[in-house]
Design brief:
By secondary structure, the chain is an alpha+beta fold. It is about 45% helix and about 15% strand. The chain has a two-stranded antiparallel sheet with strand order 1-2. β1 (about 70-75) and β2 (about 85-90) form a beta hairpin. The longest helix is centred in the N-terminal third of the chain and has 29 residues, at about 5-35. The chain is elongated and about 80 Å long.
């Protein structure tokens, strides 16, 4: 005959799991709050749009290329379409 766990043992295990989940949620929140100061412009990459200010775009560029003094912006222009912008360039190119 197969032994089934009784209701009391299942409820006790659920209480243990709830306590473990609470501890893990606290650890997750603490880790996320430590990472928050690293974010630029109050959000992730998706918060930067064509309408963003120049300062926000520069801050994003600096965040993406932090620690890379050999990388700098290079302006490009397409004469046919009239579009222009900036792309990362390396000092060794």
């Amino acid at each position: 005959m197969k032994k089934e766990p009784d209701i009391a043992s299942i409820r006790a295990r659920l209480v243990e799991l709830d306590a473990e989940r609470d501890v893990l949620n606290e650890q997750l929140e603490r880790l996320q709050s430590q990472r928050a100061p690293e974010r630029v412009c109050g959000g992730g990459v998706s918060s930067i749009t064509a309408e963003s200010t120049a300062a926000e775009k520069i801050a994003l560029f600096h965040r993406l290329f932090a620690g890379r003094p050999d990388v700098f912006p290079l302006r490009w222009e397409n004469r046919k379409s009239g579009k222009s912008g900036y792309a990362p360039a390396c000092a060794n190119e």
